[in-house]
Design goal:
Strand order of the largest sheet: 8-12-13-7-14-15-16-17
Radius of gyration: 24 Å
Number of strands: 18
Distance between the termini: 25 Å
Strand content: 15-25%
Helix content: 25-40%
Largest sheet: 8 strands, mixed
Number of helices: 14
Bound molecules: 6-O-phosphono-beta-D-glucopyranose
Amino acid sequence: MSDAPSTPTKSEPIRKADPCVMVIFGASGDLTKRKLLPALLNLASSKLLPEQFAIIGFANNDFTDDSFREYLGREVKQFASCDVPPELWDWFIKRIYYMKGDFGDASHFKTLKDQIARVEKEHGVNGNRLYYLAVAPRFFGEVVKQLGAAGLAEESNGHWARVVIEKPFGRDLDSAKALNKDIKLVLDEKQIYRIDHYLGKETVQNIIIFRFGNGIFEPIWNRRYIDHVQITAGETVGVEQRGGYYDTAGALRDMVPNHLFQLVSLTAMEPPISFHADAVRDEQAKALHAIQIPTPEEVLKTAVRGQYGRGEVDGQTVPAYKEEPNVAPDSTTETFAALKLRIDNWRWADVPFYLRTGKRLGSRATEIAIQFKRAPFQLFRDTSVEELQANRLVLHIQPEEGLSLRFGAKIPGPIMKTGPVEMKFNYEDYFGRHPSTGYERLIYDGMIGDATLFQRADMVEAGWSVITPVLDVWKALPPRSFPNYPAGSWGPKESDDLMARDGRHWRNTNIQ
Ligand code: BG6
């Protein structure tokens, strides 16, 4: 590849976020200290927060403003990637308040309203509010209802009120629809920001630029040239301290209708007519709606589940899933899921999308591999070339961030032999490192009212429509052979069989 440009072209947003008070529900939890406040600190360091800004943490722990600030002082700086000079910290911390309250208690929301008014006055904020629901999913509907009842969700006199809702949004199609219905009794769709942190990743945002900002890829991005697509989100970690949640969710719910479907829709969508939020989301929604909903018979053939047993990861022996904290010893929850999807439209008919995700896999790697059709062999029939490898383009999402393209080349020498070579682009080599929590852009977008990177109700429901039949079949037929893959492997044998039946295989070797 050519030399890196000396001045990378990177367009950073230059507009400051709108003045607002941000209320974080569930502010004493992990997400706040690990991601949200470090991201806000990074935004402050980049001068993207306005003077007229303040944060109120709302949770049911016994903090005061002072003790909350002290706790944050101990916890937050380690997760922020910027330098935190004392002036920056002072600027930041004096804008943070705490209120103890119950998510279901109307009187606490009245007190919150007074508290917001006081904080707005103190920091000159004009009435804009960003509510962030970093709470357990069972409280999503309740908090929105209380915001409505307290008059806190109204948008009046040109001031906005927006609600950011964390995942998981529902447990299946019915619960997602019910939640959408409940929150829409209080909020307009344009006030709802359903977050998926995958969309905060630069490499995910780049899929659109890569596909539609270059002349050479889009013409071949279709069923005429592409054989199949493989999307992998492999993790080496187990369930860590989240056994309580994970054991009720499982790999499919946890990763597929949200994160992996974002990757599917960005890979499969048609070009949007602009970067306007609805223009982009319309195209993503259309791609999701074109995924064929599997029948129960198809689920049995195209969906694979697994659970890890003991094994070795990074040279360490690790326990089986059933031995993890807060996991039932006889748990039938899957920690691995693989699916074959069909997107039944003119661009993708007959091009399967294979998806897989799991905990305790062979390596941490999220990537989209586009496998092109093989070149015809005729020309090589009378040579010593035995087979031609198909071209493959891999979008590396994390931890490696970049692209690689495999193509065949002649191996030097008097005899005609070919071999695959790889051309690589790595973000860091070109653009340097831009460490972030992944939440900066999403929070900033919430503050300027750009919903492009947030999920719309129809997108969430389209995702659940595809996944719910799988959940139903799996529920009706409990797994009989869990655990069925050792920690540190690439999942159960059935996952390889899923590909082998189609004469294909997972791209394991390069990422193991
Ligand atoms: C979360 C899931 O949404 O995404 C976790 O609940 C998973 O189980 C995580 O580990 C993966 O995110 P990332 O950014 O580390 O790939």
